[in-house]
Design a protein that fits this description.
- The protein folds into 2 domains: 215 residues, Alpha-Beta Complex (Spore Coat Polysaccharide Biosynthesis Protein SpsA, Chain A); 64 residues, no CATH class.
- The chain is built from 10 helices and 12 strands.
- Strands 1, 2, 3, 4, 5, 6, 7, 10, 11 and 12 form a 10-stranded mixed beta sheet that branches.
- α1 packs parallel to α2 and α9 runs antiparallel to α10.
- The longest helix has 22 residues.
- It starts with a strand and ends with a helix.
Length: 285
């Protein structure tokens, strides 16, 4: 059995469309856990009325992604799940998404499997995990920027995968624990989990046959980068939603870099990219 964990907050229509897509899956051997962290737009009421099969956990509005996800994971672990999937409500999974996840998980039962994210507006792939190098950090890249679209089939091994559509065997949580919500309440919690899983001996693949349609502009980090200002530059680097958050990046590197001789170079290039990349886009856009 797969338990799908999805934290939500005040995105009722996104959540509704997401749950409709899950209801239309070709295979229904899964359960959905929605962790509603204090929504005030009627999200919980909508779920109770229209999706009674969903397990709804109501929280008080003081959580972020990592701890809200942990609450769902704890529930799933207490109910004898075999796999846990983390999936966002700003996605619309293809109807055979779960079927293709199960197909490959039967062949790679100990691996973490991520979904191929497609731009819902263009139909083009936008995310497939990352190939990452601590020694040569400039070589880190999104899988879809490395392979041609025709090569995105089956399983492709990656070094890091975000929490959007990641299928995780129960044994991974049993071995490495939950998401580190103390150090990474929002951004970087899924990166940290990926590195910890790999360091524990698990493999991560992008399952290119399992596709989710994604809304690329819905992330708070994307908003800060698209709407350039001094205020948003600061938020990009230091706010909890900032995709370039220097504090989380530094913690992530110190915690997971396998060899300390790589660390200073990695940090310097990472800081430079996060600060300089924003400014470069702002100046030349």
């Amino acid at each position: 059995m797969i338990y799908i964990i999805t934290p939500v907050y005040n995105r009722k229509e996104f959540t509704k469309n997401y749950l409709k897509a899950l209801r239309e899956q070709t295979i229904q051997d899964f359960k959905v856990i929605i962790v509603d962290d204090g929504s005030s737009d009627g999200t919980s009421e909508m779920i109770e009325q229209e999706f009674p099969e969903v397990i709804l956990l109501k929280e008080n509005g003081d959580l972020w992604w990592a701890e809200a996800t942990n609450i769902g994971v704890k529930y799933a672990l207490a109910h004898a799940t075999d796999y846990i999937m983390t999936l966002n409500d700003d996605t619309v999974p293809e109807s055979d998404y779960i079927e293709n996840m199960i197909f490959w998980s039967n062949r790679k039962p100990d691996a973490l499997l991520g979904a191929l994210a497609m731009d819902i507006n263009t139909g083009k792939p936008i995310g497939g995990g990352f190939l990452h190098s601590w020694k040569k950090p400039r070589t880190s890249a999104n899988l879809v920027h490395i392979l041609e679209e025709k090569e995105l089939v089956g399983l492709v091994k990656v070094d890091n995968f975000p929490g959007r559509g990641l299928l995780i065997p129960r044994k991974v949580f049993d071995k490495i624990g939950l998401y580190d919500s103390e150090n990474f309440p929002q951004a970087a919690a899924d990166d940290d989990f990926s590195y910890r899983a790999i360091n524990a001996g698990y493999e991560i693949f992008c399952n290119c046959d399992a596709k989710i349609n994604s809304f690329p502009d819905e992330s708070g980090g994307v908003y800060l980068k698209k709407n350039k200002s001094l205020k948003n530059f600061y938020k990009h680097l230091f706010s909890i939603k900032g995709s370039g958050n220097l504090i989380f990046f530094t913690r992530l590197a110190i915690k997971n870099c396998p060899k300390k001789r790589y660390l200073l170079k990695y940090l310097f290039l990472g800081w430079s990219n996060r600060i300089g990349g924003y400014l470069k886009e702002w100046i030349f856009e």
